[in-house]
């Protein structure tokens, strides 16, 4: 992160808040002309500071009202078993995040579904059908207190 100056950080902050801003809009806000701003944005993409630009959708408008955090423990931990589990998880659209974790469990998943019935279907027919699942603990979320994709710069 040492290769970023104050202007780069401002550009990144603006883009992560609203990726739909034009280079001209960003340039005005950071005090640059459009061409140098555009070049900076391209450099930030080329150097990997910007992975991609996306639209954040409203899950409730789409009928996706349930968020479940699932702690998963595998019965075995060989590289092959881990790779098989991770490959399967990547293929499930309901799983929007997956992390390996330390402690008594191996993974935590963030699962988004329509309702409890659709989560139960996912759990029984998909997740628990995977080999080497020893335990899955579901934590149904209730109120979303904070959600952001913006990283602290």
How is the quaternary structure best described? Answer: single chain
What is the overall number of helices?
5
Tell me about the biggest sheet? 4 strands, antiparallel
Spatial ordering of strands, largest sheet = 2-3-1-4
Strand proportion: 15-25%
* Spatial shape: elongated
Order of helical and strand elements = HHHEHEEHE
Number of strands: 4
Please identify the structural class as seen in this structure. Answer: alpha+beta
- What is Rg? 20 Å
Helix content: 25-40%
Distance between the termini: 10 Å
What would the average pLDDT be, to the nearest integer?
95
Describe, in plain words, how this protein is organized in 3D.
Helices cover 37% and strands 20% of the residues. The radius of gyration is 20 Å and the shape is elongated. The longest helix has 13 residues, at 34-46. A 4-stranded antiparallel β-sheet has the order 2-3-1-4. It starts with 5 loop residues before the first helix and ends in a 13-residue tail after the last strand. The protein has 153 residues and is of the alpha+beta class.
Q: Keywords for this structure?
A:
153 residues; elongated; single chain
List the helices and strands and how they pair.
Blueprint: H1 6-17, H2 23-30, H3 34-46, E1 66-74, H4 79-90, E2 95-100, E3 107-113, H5 116-126, E4 133-140
Antiparallel strand pairs: 1-3, 1-4, 2-3
């Amino acid at each position: 992160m040492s290769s970023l100056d104050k202007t780069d950080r401002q550009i990144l902050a603006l883009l992560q808040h609203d990726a739909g801003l034009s280079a001209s809009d960003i340039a005005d806000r950071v005090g640059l002309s459009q061409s140098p701003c555009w070049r900076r944005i391209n450099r930030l993409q080329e150097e990997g500071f910007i992975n991609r630009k996306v639209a954040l959708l409203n899950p409730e408008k789409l009928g996706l009202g349930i968020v479940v955090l699932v702690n998963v423990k595998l019965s075995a931990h060989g590289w092959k078993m881990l790779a098989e589990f991770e490959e399967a998880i990547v293929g499930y659209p309901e799983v929007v995040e997956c992390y390996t974790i330390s402690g008594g469990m191996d993974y935590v998943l963030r699962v988004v579904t329509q309702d409890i019935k659709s989560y139960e279907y996912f759990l029984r027919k998909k997740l628990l059908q995977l080999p080497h699942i020893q335990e899955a603990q579901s934590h149904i979320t209730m109120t979303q207190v904070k959600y952001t994709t913006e990283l602290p710069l």
